[in-house]
Amino acid sequence: MTYPIIEEDGFKYIEAGKGETLVLLHGLMGELSNWELVIEHFKDRYRVIIPILPIYDLPILTLGVKALSRYLHRFLKYKNLNQVVLVGNSLGGHVGLVFTVAHQEFVKALVLTGSSGLYENAFGGSFPRRESYDYIKEKVEFTFYDPATATKELVDDVFKTVNDRSRVIRILTMAKSAIRHNMAKELSKITIPVSLIWGKNDKVTPPEVAEEFHQLLPNSELNWVDKCGHAPMMEHPEIFNTFLDKFLDRILLK
């Protein structure tokens, strides 16, 4: 990542650009670099901020989607941010949903890509065999339509993370929290504009999940990215950025 991580008052984040604020929320295993091409595209016209969600820092007994939502609330208040556009991938989308239900006044619009909150098939439905590099490689490749997107650097990062006993316990705790926290009955409360940008070949949160989000969110649009898995902003960044551009133009120029 070419952007320095800012650390202040217990928060860690990346920030670039000026203008209307986009807050990008990473997934459970997501690196900040997952968003690099999104930052590059939007930083000349928008203020782009990526908070590091404290999955590995919060007390494990309180760790869950709601705890990350409360952290996001504290962060936005600390940065004196209001009427932001939240953009979340996977667990980050789920955190954005929980936060928006509780604090819709902070959010101008919401963008979800491969979001959990209704259903997810984490790690392909099986417990990670941490010691096997080939197994971890296979599971990282499972995330994408094109296995080549799972670079050696990315696989190395995930392998290192899941072989840290403390971290893997937190990952599994967080994943269980996300699965338990089904939001189907709460989504009708979100009346702000929502853009769903979804991989047509997502095996973690399959296309029917996007269709259910679209049905349950009263003010939503659904955009498909062909030949794409769970992270469109990584696998097809140009298409992802085009959809996001059009959505931002529509909601911010009103």
Order of helices and strands: EEEHEHEHEHHHEHEHH
What would the CATH topology be? Answer: Rossmann fold
End-to-end Cα distance = 34 Å
CATH homologous superfamily?
Alpha/Beta hydrolase fold, catalytic domain
Q: Can you lay out the helices and strands and say which pair or pack?
A:
Elements: E1 6-8, E2 11-16, E3 21-25, H1 36-42, E4 47-51, H2 65-78, E5 84-89, H3 91-102, E6 107-113, H4 133-142, H5 152-162, H6 165-180, E7 194-199, H7 207-216, E8 220-225, H8 232-235, H9 237-252
Parallel strand pairs: 3-4, 3-5, 5-6, 6-7, 7-8
Antiparallel strand pairs: 1-2, 2-4
Helix pairs in contact: 1-9, 2-3, 4-5
Attribute tags:
hydrolase, alpha/beta, globular, Rossmann fold, 254 residues, 39% helix
